Amino acid sequence: MNKYNENNYKTMCEEYSRMTVAMPPDSERIVRDSEALFTFAAWGDPQIFHGSSSRTQKFAFACADIANMEGKLDAIAILGDIAEMGAECEYKMCADLLNGISDKFTDLLCVTGNHDIRIRDYKSQRNKFRDFVLSVKGGVFDNDNGGYYFSRDYDCCRFILMGSDSNSFEGTNIGRAQRKWLDDEIGKAEKEGKIAFVLNHQTLKHSNGLPVTWGGNGKWRGSIGIQSDKIKDIFEKHKNVIFITGHLHYGFSVYSYEDCGCFKLLSLPTVGVVNHGSMNKDSQGYIISVYPDKITIRARLHMEGKWLNPKAQGAYIEIKR
Ligand SMILES: [Fe+2]
């Protein structure tokens, strides 16, 4: 770590030591259901920033909620924008917090977001991101193709992690090779009767409330970008895709989940920044469980250590298998 990052990291640690991160109440703690075949937490955009300690605090609350749970998660999935500036000190802070709860999850599955890879040299940012993932106990990285995409197979599901092939300020560049790989990976899972949880930082065009959920701006802004239709064409060839994304910083709402027939879209709020929309509480995330006959998706208010009122929009989603 260079001097600049070292100094910032020191400051971040000092700020963290002065923070109040109260342990959530036990009354509504997360309980791992032993009937579930697989259970994971899905978080969007921690965006840890050396210039704003409140991001660290919000993320720490989410970690505290997991620390307080009964049982253990099979995985935590983080949908990109781990670090606001893609800086080493920010990744280190995030890794510290995740390592503090590493006894509460088996695997850490992370995809890159635009903040992680933009502005700087792609290859060095990609390597920095890989090093961050591998610095966390349980961090999964399985890629030798020079990009950032790989899959992780489990008994009942396959996680397919997408990542931009080059720098992009706001979108994701998904090249021909990655698109072919995506199609093949989804197909393999489908043949084996498994759900394909496809993880990417941005959702499809005109989906999950876009453009409303991106401030009402642009024809593609807030989405993957120019390859969006090609990705959608791939999803439409199969019947098993649940596409999970972040980026929008939009709280639980009617836009969180979209049933597109043969594939489903789940857009996550942010766990570290400010959530837009009417449900704008801090530190929101989903807890997802796979059962033999269904998938349940429950909205969690991590800062309060509570489930969102089940009558609220986006609070509880059930998908039949
Ligand atoms: Fe983003």
Structure, described:
The protein contains seven helices and 13 strands. It has 321 residues and is α/β, with parallel strands linked by helices. It has a single domain (3-22, 36-320), classed as Metallo-dependent phosphatases (Purple Acid Phosphatase, chain A, domain 2). Strands 1, 2, 3, 10, 11, 12 and 13 form a seven-stranded mixed beta sheet that branches. Helix 1 packs across helix 3 (88-99) and helix 3 packs parallel to helix 5 (122-135). It is globular and about 50 Å long. The protein starts with a helix and ends with a strand. The chain binds fe (ii) ion. Fe (ii) ion (FE2) binds next to helix 4. Fe (ii) ion binds at residues 81, 113-115, 201, 247.
Text of the CATH class = Alpha Beta
Unreliable stretches (pLDDT < 50, length at least 5) are: none
β-sheet strand percentage: 15-25%
User: Largest beta sheet, briefly?
Assistant: 7 strands, mixed
Indicate how many domains the architecture comprises.
1
Q: What is the residue-mean pLDDT, rounded to a whole number?
A: 95
Q: Report the CATH topology name.
A: Purple Acid Phosphatase, chain A, domain 2
Helix content: 25-40%
In CATH terms, the superfamily is Metallo-dependent phosphatases
Q: What class do helices, strands and sheet pairing give?
A: alpha/beta
Bound molecules: fe (ii) ion
CATH architecture: 4-Layer Sandwich
Over all CA atoms, what is the radius of gyration?
A: 18 Å
Described by its quaternary structure, the protein is: single chain
Give the number of helices.
7
